[in-house]
């Protein structure tokens, strides 16, 4: 298993969950979630949205920094890091 870390920018309280687009420099992946940033609900929703968008298990994702901030670092444990990185790059351009 390889570990891959990505920076994400969370938009809580969105009308629907969406993963795609870039924020800032260096680019952070935008993740919009319906959940509010209360009691870790937004973090849980971010993990679920990223797992779905990247086609990985939720158990393979974890927030490693920025637990209470909009900008977070998420670690992905995966067997094929190149494939996951290609999906991330495509989502950054969406």
Descriptive overview:
With 94 residues, the protein is of the alpha+beta class. It has a single domain (2-93), classed as 2-Layer Sandwich (Conserved Hypothetical Protein Mth637, Chain: A), CATH 3.30.1200. Helices cover 29% and strands 36% of the residues. It is built from 2 helices and 5 strands. The chain has helices spanning 41-54, 81-93, and strands at 2-11, 18-23, 28-32, 61-65, 71-78. Strands 2-3-1-5-4 form a 5-stranded mixed sheet. Strand 2 (18-23) and strand 3 form a beta hairpin. The longest helix has 14 residues, at 41-54. It is globular. The model has no long low-confidence stretch (mean pLDDT 94).
Secondary structure topology:
Layout: E1 2-11, E2 18-23, E3 28-32, H1 41-54, E4 61-65, E5 71-78, H2 81-93
Parallel strand pairs: 1-3
Antiparallel strand pairs: 1-5, 2-3, 4-5
């Amino acid at each position: 298993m390889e570990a891959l870390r990505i920076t994400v920018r969370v938009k809580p309280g969105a009308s629907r969950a969406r993963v795609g687009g870039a924020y800032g420099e260096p680019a952070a992946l935008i993740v919009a979630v319906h959940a509010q940033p209360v009691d870790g609900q937004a973090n849980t929703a971010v993990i679920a949205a990223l797992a779905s968008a990247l086609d990985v298990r939720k158990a393979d994702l974890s927030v490693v920094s920025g637990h209470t901030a909009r900008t977070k670092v998420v670690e992905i444990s995966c067997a094929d890091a190149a494939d996951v990185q290609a999906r991330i790059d495509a989502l950054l351009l969406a």
